[in-house]
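quick one before i forget lol
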Amino acid sequence: MSEPELKLAKAPIVEALIDIDCDMPPGLDLAALEGPARQTFRSQYPKFRNQFLEHHRIESRIDEPAKHSARRAIQALQFLHDDEKQLVQLRAQGFSFNRLAPYTSLDDYLPEIRRTWELFIELTSPLQVRVVRLRYINRILLPFIGMRVRLLEYLNLGPRLPDEERLQFAGFLDQHSAVEMDTGHQVNIVLASQPPENEKLPIIFDICVASAGAVEPKDWIWIPTQVQSLRGLKNRIFRHTLSEKCLNLFQR
């Protein structure tokens, strides 16, 4: 069943990203791609940085000193706008497009996602698309009344204490994983508190939805079709997790 579009004057999104995980060619060397990739992306994404993954191994045997070894490998090549609000990533597992606040609408970014995805294909020759993942990280500021925030008034889904009158949260991390029955889409929802600031309690509301497949990388039509399906699921999760009182905070 479709729902009316939720329009917010000031959406609490701090970061939105799309991951497209792929089967990559055996022996893909990201380090060797750095030069060609810089040349390809530098007109729109002039800033560059590497993301590394370190593996540490400790071996311990009786009556022998422990042996430690470490291995460092490039996990992603990251290309950023001058203001660092938008970036494209060539990852060992695929492609990512990140947009930080201010964020407008997914529709505004899809043409650029397609353009940079096609550049990614030219550079890396992925074998097959496996997963499309859509993730939105929201930061919601809930007002204190006295020394408390009544979470029940703002969150339909979230942490609960066994005695709301005599116990008060010092912090929380609440996580849910699910599968959408009709589509098989994977869902991961995280609600976490941050330290208070300016008489408000910041809440991180992280929604990640993913669709699995086995698709040719050049079949672009499949990707936005899945993205739009995931977007609808993400919007339903957002709407049903937050109360009307909470949603009204984003209309001011």
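fyi The chain has a mean pLDDT of 89.
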